[in-house]
Design goal:
7-stranded mixed beta sheet, alpha/beta, about 45% helix, 8 helices, Glycerol-3-phosphate (1)-acyltransferase, single chain
């Protein structure tokens, strides 16, 4: 039954995305606000499909830590789920993502602010423009989706943003989406995915302290949310061997990509 429900979601996902592209594609001619409208519509459609096909619901915690107006959100990244979900919880998200994600149909057109932690100056410039427009800049510090339980280092681009915009709140986000919808996984599991907004990082920290504290806050709470989900919904949990194998595969892919010519840009 779980496999059949996952199949149903995948059929609905690709069919619904194709239909939405056809119907709403002309709105791209009317600028960013129209594009954001399409992005919001698409994300809510996918959330509806997840709820009624596989029984995947969502829960937000710590919303009181999310300020009104612009901020920088540093989020754990385990699944496509959070890329979709931020559009349903913050009014005008601007993503800092890898270049390869701009090639995803619809996502690449409607959700991406910029790509490439390598292009640091472009990232700061794009983030500055987004913050001036009262948007919420979202960055995934590990640079790629990681399986539950993994321990990938955080890229220093998050400190560059923290330092460049000292008056802007930096909000860490923990979640357990990978327990329900893993990277490149056909299977989707029912249950309640939790996204938790943690208290803002203290201003004025040096690089070493900031990087250590933000990783500790996000990873510690993420582990707790993973364990809660596994217990409550009887979900499969990756073993340490599974995690190591996945990380080795991801590292090999990242290494191959790093040898290719850089094509990152701000859009």
């Amino acid at each position: 039954m779980i496999t059949l429900r996952a199949l149903l979601f995948n059929v609905l996902f690709f069919g619904g995305t194709a239909l939405l592209c056809i119907v709403l594609l002309p709105l791209m001619l009317f600028g960013r606000k129209a594009n954001q409208f399409v992005g919001h519509a698409w994300c809510r459609l996918i959330q509806f499909m997840l709820r009624y096909s596989v029984g995947m619901r969502k829960r937000f915690a710590g919303l009181e830590n999310l300020p009104d107006g612009p901020c920088i959100i540093v989020a754990k990244h385990q699944s496509a789920w959070e890329t979709l979900t931020f559009h349903t919880v913050v009014p005008d998200p601007a993503y800092i993502l890898k270049k390869e994600l701009t090639r995803i149909p619809l996502v690449g057109q409607f959700l991406i602010l910029s790509a490439g932690s390598q292009a640091l100056k472009d990232m700061i410039k794009g983030a500055s423009k987004a913050l001036e427009e009262n948007r919420q800049v979202i960055i995934f510090p590990e640079g790629t989706r990681t399986p539950p339980g993994s321990n990938r280092p955080y890229h220093p681009g998050i400190f560059a943003l923290y330092k460049a915009f000292p008056d802007t709140k930096v909000i860490p986000v923990a979640l357990n989406s990978g327990m329900f919808w893993g990277r490149d996984s056909f299977m989707k599991y029912g249950g309640r995915v939790t996204m938790e907004f943690l208290p803002a990082m203290e201003p004025g920290l040096d690089r070493k302290t900031f990087m250590k504290e933000i990783k500790h806050h996000i990873d510690t709470r993420t582990r707790e949310l993973e364990a809660e989900a596994q217990t409550e919904f009887n979900l499969p949990m990756l073993t340490s061997d599974d995690i190591d194998a996945k990380q080795e595969k991801e590292d090999a892919q990242i290494g191959a990509m790093s040898k290719a010519p850089a094509e990152d840009k701000v859009s």
